[in-house]
Amino acid sequence: MHLEDGALIVFSDDFDDYPIVKTSFEGLNTVRCISPINANNVENIAITGTMVLLMAAVMHGVL
């Protein structure tokens, strides 16, 4: 996915949109919220371009 200069991605502030999933981190099995941008069973994907990812500010009522 290529994003144009100045593109803005805003993620949902609804925690139900990020379910808890089993995963591994640094070789340890764990659980965590799913990332807002994720994919399964894919190869050779990328997000390119100049963009702003906006999540924390919206979730904390800053914007």
Automatic annotation (TrEMBL):
Protein name per the record: Uncharacterized protein
Native source species: Thalassobellus suaedae
